Amino acid sequence: MSRLIPLTALILVIFSQSALGQEAISRPVARLITSITPVTKVSMTSAPVEPNEIERRAFDQTNAARIQHGLPPFAWDSDVCRMARIHSEKMSRQGFLSHVTPDGLGLRDRIRAAGIEKFIVLGENIAYNQGYDDPGAFAVERWMLSFKHRANILSPEFRAMAIGSFVAPDGSVYLTQTFITR
Predict the structure, then answer these.
(1) Which residues have C-beta within 8 Å of that of residue 165, sequence separation ≥ 6?
(2) Quick check: helix, strand or coil at residue 28?
(3) Tens digit of each residue's pLDDT (9 = 90 or more) over 135-149
């Protein structure tokens, strides 16, 4: 599969979706023709999902930023992590970087497909980077420099959050940080 992103460059691309639920306008990283598959609910188990090293660093850095600004830390949400991991993997495998999948599923569609039917508010930050020793912390550092991403991280409306990461075979890292209040 050819990619439009140079594999040797140090890259960080970030997009944010506001807490108001409006879809971010974004450009795909690569244009691929994919088959359209029906949305099916992901079976959620009650077993907790522990963050991997990248997710843990991003989660801890996000909570450190919140505490520094006088806000309570986020609770980890295992169901949201499962959904975020699926989205990060899908972005990598299908060659796009967006809150909307190539088959048109936005955050609300994906959260419902993950079996989360009731929520008060949602938000999402996404990132792609390559060549960084600490990709989770680097993504948070860059999100904090962006008005919309920072607004999601520091929003008092959100109570829980999870990050789903996926490391592609070429070493590029995709991160989906999803915020929720149920």
Answers:
(1) 52, 54, 55, 58, 85, 88, 135, 136, 173, 174, 175, 176
(2) coil
(3) 999 999 999 999 999
CA distance 104 to 80: 19
pTM of the model: 0.76
End-to-end CA distance of the chain: 39
Give the distance, in angstroms, between the CA of residue 24 and the centroid of all CA atoms in the same chain: 13
DSSP 8-state symbol, 66: H
46's tokens: 């009650």
**CB neighbour list of residue 11: distance below 8 Å, 6 or more residues apart:** 5, 128, 129, 130, 131, 172
The one-letter amino acid code at 53 reads E
User: Which of 134, 123, 155 lies closest to 18, judged by CA?
Assistant: 123
